[in-house]
Design goal:
The protein has 176 residues and is an alpha/beta fold. It has seven helices and eleven strands. One of its GO terms (biological process) is regulation of DNA-templated transcription.
């Protein structure tokens, strides 16, 4: 099932997109504040993020950059009224994978989501987060904020298992 986080402050548009995508068997959570999206992303990664540019507590461009710093492969699509070429180029430079200008056809949006997910299927996330703690699988390093924490290889492996299974019960045998 495709899980969608949608940052949209316009309740009517958010409801319309949510209803349509849920009819296509997607699970959609709509957020009307950037802070709420960030909190949700730290707890759980969806399949894809849809975001509006103008939000009450900030710009979607800031959220896009924040996501890209943490999850390089998480698909991001802008859904926004900002349709001039400068805004579109900025959206892609900030890390968006696609850019859709409002108003848009919901069937076309869904098709674009499916096409994007076909291209990103099987891509794994190299950085895991839990609050301020980040585990970088490429560098096999652990950071608290910007500061690297020195851990032994067994400690790293245990932390990796715990962070990959956040919210799940892990037995002692799974850790050994």
């Amino acid at each position: 099932m495709i899980e969608v986080y949608y940052a949209e402050d316009d309740e009517t548009i958010g409801k319309s997109v949510k209803e349509y995508l849920e009819q296509q068997n997607c699970k959609v959570t709509v957020f009307d504040r950037i802070a709420d999206v960030k909190k949700a992303l730290i707890g759980h990664l969806p399949t894809i993020v849809l975001l509006d540019w103008n939000m009450p507590d900030g710009q979607g461009s800031e959220l896009c950059l924040w996501i890209r710093e943490r999850w390089i492969t998480l698909p991001i699509v802008y859904l926004t009224v900002r349709g001039d070429s400068h805004d579109i180029v900025t959206g892609f430079q900030n890390g968006a994978d696609d850019y859709v200008v409002k108003p848009f056809d919901l069937a076309v949006l869904y098709s674009r989501i499916l096409a994007l997910l076909r291209r990103t299927e099987g891509v794994t996330h190299t950085k895991l987060f839990c609050d301020d703690l980040m585990l970088d699988k490429e560098k096999t390093a652990v950071y608290n904020g910007q500061k690297e924490i020195v851990v032994s290889q067994p400690e790293y492996q245990i932390l990796l298992i715990l962070m990959e299974n956040k919210g799940k019960t892990i037995t002692r045998n799974q850790l050994l």
